[in-house]
Amino acid sequence: MSAGRHNLPQLLGGARRWFDEGLLAALEAEGAEPVSVAQLHVFTVLDEPGTTVADLARRMGVARQTAHQAVHGLVAAGLLEQVPDPHSARRRLIRRTAKGRRVHERAEAAIENLERALVSRIGADGVLALREILERPWGQPPRGRHPGT
User: Fold this and answer.
1) 70 half-sphere exposure, CB direction, 13 A CA radius
2) How many domains does the chain have?
3) CB 142 within 8 A of CB 51
4) Helix or strand or coil: residue 85?
5) Quick check: 106 and 30 in contact, CB under 8 A?
6) At residue 138, what are phi and psi to the nearest 5 degrees?
7) How far apart are the C-alpha atoms of 148 and 141, rounded to whole Å?
8) Which residues are 80's β-sheet partners?
9) Strand locations in the chain, DSSP E?
10) pLDDT in tens, 125-142
11) pLDDT per position as a tens digit, 53-81
12) Within-domain flag for 146
């Protein structure tokens, strides 16, 4: 890689930060409960009927303790709640409260606005191409010394 050129993980991370910062700013401007980026990510991987902390951690790619801390803050803010899992007496599900659903709806609207802003910056064709490429299945990452095989 040449000096000054970023690799794909850096570019994807920068794009994710652009959306995260824009979303947090939009929610703050609307007076929503302040949340961290980790707490924001909980909302992106949470299933409507509820999700276990272990599943949240796996989907977020973080340790269970990290996911638990993010969830704890969102429960304290009244955005999430813990409920018994109807299929397992030992598990608890995390799900949105009514307040959390309202914030989630505002966040989805803010994301739509961010996507429109991106269209104005890189063009509709660029956004469409980006979406199409990212929606393609990538499969499991290669293992070993020769990743192209």
Assistant:
1) 25
2) 1
3) no
4) strand
5) yes
6) -100, -20
7) 10
8) 96
9) 80-85, 88-96
10) 999 999 999 999 999 989
11) 999 999 999 999 999 999 999 999 999 99
12) no
